[in-house]
Predict the structure.
Amino acid sequence: MNLIFLGPPGAGKGTVAVKLKDEKKLPHISTGDLFRAAIKSESDLGLQVKAIVDRGDLVPDELTVAIVKERLDQADCQNGFILDGFPRTEAQAEALQKITNIDKALNFYVEEEELIKRLSGRRVCKQCGASFHVLFVPPKKEGICDHCGGELYTRKDDEIESIKNRLSVYKEQTQPLIDYYNNKQLLVDINAAEAPENVFTSVLNILK
Ligand code: AP5
């Protein structure tokens, strides 16, 4: 099953993808995670994209498509994948169409006010990348990851100025993909305003 997770920043795409990956044994490909790993390792790619990611702009299509293509060519993607946060522009969607077919594009929708609350309260594990929320998905021990004991931190792009920019970039460049995939009859809407376990159940029901 070749899946795309569409939706604004903070809609809960990553939270669902991590669970679905285990449930369906599908690789979870998050372009945001790929860029953050490159930034952490200070690779050439990381140095090129750090400032762009920190301020919440989109990395140029050419670079983004190249890393996704490379990832999709790997053996574990041959029986399906979850693409989380890609495509984000029409040019990326067109490029993806040339690389592989898509079975469904899941559109996670949530009101903007809720997105801001989710993003500003998000905490991420420095070690394993697990995502928490100070109010909605709190770790058992403040500041410490439940899964690996790593330290939790706030992403640079979860500061309020970057959040606002990401939401406006989403509206301008990514929201048009809802129509794009609707016209191809691949779009399925997911009410992502519910509690995390309910959102996950909705996704499982749709994929039955
Ligand atoms: P990326 O990492 O993809 O960021 P994003 O799309 O902005 O998505 P987020 O990770 O912020 O949100 P999410 O929907 O996954 O929510 P999450 O599950 O974490 O991209 C980062 C940057 O990389 C981009 O800004 C760009 O610069 C670059 N980039 C990436 N892809 C690119 C592309 N294709 N082209 C160009 N550039 C690209 O949840 C958020 C919070 O809410 C968490 O705290 C979580 O615990 C909580 N939460 C989740 N679900 C619920 C729920 N149901 N109820 C209550 N709280 C919840």
